[in-house]
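To whoever picks this up:

The nightly regression suite flagged Polyprenol monophosphomannose synthase as changed. Nothing in the input moved, so I suspect the structure step. Input below, exactly as stored in the fixture:
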Amino acid sequence: MNIARSYVNDTSPLPSPWRDAQVAVVVPTYNEAGNIAELTRSIHALDLPNLMLIIVDDDSPDGTGSIADDLAGRANEDRPGSMVVLHRKVKEGIGRAHIAGMKEALARGADYVVQMDGDLSHRPEYIPRMLGTIMSAHAGVVIGSRYVAGGSLSADWGRHRRLLSKFAGLYVNAILKLPLRDATGGFKMWRRDVLERIDLNAIRSDGYSFQVEMNHLCRQLGQSIVEIPIHFEERNAGSSKISFAVQLESMLTPFALRFGGRRRPAGQAEAVRSLR
Ligand SMILES: Nc1nc2c(ncn2[C@@H]2O[C@H](COP(=O)(O)OP(=O)(O)O)[C@@H](O)[C@H]2O)c(=O)[nH]1
Ligand SMILES: [Mg+2]
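Regenerated output under the current build:
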């Protein structure tokens, strides 16, 4: 594994109330067997004693779900309630997985809910900084942003991918009139009361446009969105799950959000909770 750690060099202990906050970290996984152990280790290594990790696995064929169950068993022996695994029977997309995880986080009393990827692209070391920002700015959501000053992308990203990502951000901002540098980013921290006011059952996105839809709904509530710089790593192990259907949805959703139409109900896949 080749992960630079120097970009987060602030290791001083967090002051209260930061470190005592009830933080839930939601991570959707589909075939992340090569990443889940390191991800769990680095999240639980944070100086946040009330942090809970919620893995939402859509029955990954590579066994990510059962690896996560083992990890949860050990984590909960060390600190009861520190890790939950939701097993869903159908692969319904990252958006649906996040919705399930967010609902679980709220039901378990989280005051702040992080959403991040399970491939180590999003480094957990940024979470304390996000927490400090959301508390001091009283933001509705903090985005770990690749495109604000100080943010950066993995050197492994070629020109084509960089251009596509930039274009997606400009496209979304233009249609939805969002003032964001990284409208499509997936590393975020939400304030509980904002998530409670968003009707998660009415979210129309299944896939990656979930990120954009949530930003739009947050703005509609009049809540502020604050971006802080992150370095975005190339995924560690495994491969990307972006499909053509998901890309098409990402193109069409901003129009649907802007110009209305009926919102669809949430997916029907049954979530079976396993808490060890
Ligand atoms: N539960 C679940 N997780 C998913 C699904 N699609 C993607 N993911 C997870 O979402 C995160 C981001 O996906 P990834 O393929 O890395 O997207 P990319 O970084 O944009 O290429 C990873 O943790 C994936 O395992 C899905 O349908 N269900
Ligand atoms: Mg990824």
